[in-house]
Amino acid sequence: MKRRDFLIAGGLTFAAATLSPSLFASQQQPLKILALVFDDYETLDLHGPIEMLGHMQNVQIKLIGASPTVRSYQGPRVVTDYQLDDVVDCDLLLVPGGLGTRTLINDEALLTWLRRQASVSKKVFSVCTGSALLAKAGLLDGVSATTNKMAFSWVTSLSQQALWQPSARWVDDGRFLTSSGVSAGTDAALFYVRQRRGEAEARRIERLTEYQWNSDAANDPYAVEPMTP
Amino acid sequence: MKRRDFLIAGGLTFAAATLSPSLFASQQQPLKILALVFDDYETLDLHGPIEMLGHMQNVQIKLIGASPTVRSYQGPRVVTDYQLDDVVDCDLLLVPGGLGTRTLINDEALLTWLRRQASVSKKVFSVCTGSALLAKAGLLDGVSATTNKMAFSWVTSLSQQALWQPSARWVDDGRFLTSSGVSAGTDAALFYVRQRRGEAEARRIERLTEYQWNSDAANDPYAVEPMTP
């Protein structure tokens, strides 16, 4: 596997460094966000967070997948920036869910990549059934986490070691941020903005996008009953 | 310009017709949704509606743009299914907004295509500053409409003939459905689901996506002051 750096791959940033090294040197490194995509990923799981994260200043968002283009469950296709033989240093690894996860949990190459990629990602953020992939890879062992409430029994069956939360819009457990289903990822993304850049920045992006942020992780309108042991 | 039909372009549907004509003949035509994309389109303007519309039964969603791939304002790229020399019969033409509209309003070829495409679209649905393109093309003359409330004075300056609404999450004026900024498009898309397929279907999709639908067009948390004449 190759290990690459966003600064080398990012043409614009590289050009900026070439043209104006002093300016470049004085700037902060961009926040590097990498999102896994796969056929039958759920559209909003990916693009809701990208909307909110992409409005932060000095951020780069790249997609990684098994093929040059990848089709969402809803039909439209996205272009990948990296292939799955790459492992990319990043600040945030975004793992969306969707129907495609039902087969991907049995893809050993994908799970091996996911473990390696997670190890070079400062934080891992799953939306919806993206947590199924993390659970199957063993990454959520001992981690407090949540998932899609419509698929709660399936996802939670994939790891007895994860500390599954039946009532949470999202759960932040340090290195792992896991959200509930689909739309919850957008709310959790704004939580990440708040964590990284402060409340004012999160509220600026909420207004800019005319969004109505469910900003309280404990406010879960789709909570399920706690599991009996 | 070429005029194409989704059934010919849609390989899967065509294959189904070939393999099983009697089954195919007994099925309803799919609901055909076409979405315009352009560089610096706003991610959620496009993908929020695609999420909700794409969960209806028997629907096809295709993208049309000036080049084979198109980059969002947030960075990631989508693949177009049609090029802008095509005019495609459809049930719904989705026109997102975003920073790209600031230059596109001066693109005469785009505006000409938009007028032709609108004429073969049963309904036209703009999100955010997508309404700037409709307004500049003259399509909103005499039409009750709304737009992004953060860019309200700019968009409304593009048409004195449109009947601009300063307080509305979205406005449905028959052939034209126009929403407020970014996130409002997702709410308006569920309104379209309700209009086409009924309340129960809209609520099913809301639950499936763990969404909290602002289902009342009059509930506009970002309303602006009415303009003085």
From TrEMBL, chains A, B:
Transmembrane segments: none annotated. Keywords: Signal. Coiled coil: none annotated. Residues 32-190 form the DJ-1/PfpI domain. Residues 1-25 form the signal peptide. It holds the Pfam family DJ-1_PfpI. InterPro entries: Class_I_gatase-like (IPR029062), DJ-1/PfpI (IPR002818), INH-QAR (IPR052158). PANTHER family: ARAC-FAMILY TRANSCRIPTIONAL REGULATOR, THIJ_PFPI FAMILY PROTEIN (AFU_ORTHOLOGUE AFUA_5G14240). This is ThiJ/PfpI family protein.
